[in-house]
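My hope is that you will study the protein record below before we discuss the fold together.
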Amino acid sequence: MKLEQAAKQLEALGNPTRLNLYRTLVRAGEAGRPVGYLQETLGIAASTLSHHLHRLILTGLVTQERQATTLICRANYPVMSDLLGFLADECCADAACSPASGEVAA
């Protein structure tokens, strides 16, 4: 993962409404959630929800799929895993880590 992509994804998640929306989708699992459910659960206007979903979709964190008249939103788990890996991959790379605790050794 490139630094620029990770920065865009983290920026998108830096908004409290988008972070709450994303966590709702992560909790939903592979089935995802319909847009109507998200709007009701989060208590936000449709236009506001659309704006926030758009930001998450642009960064690849969320996908959408139309099923008949329903728009289903899902967390993109491979992208989420890549972002988490990017954040953790170099943990303690410049210091000795204690394997048992993950803390930096003195």
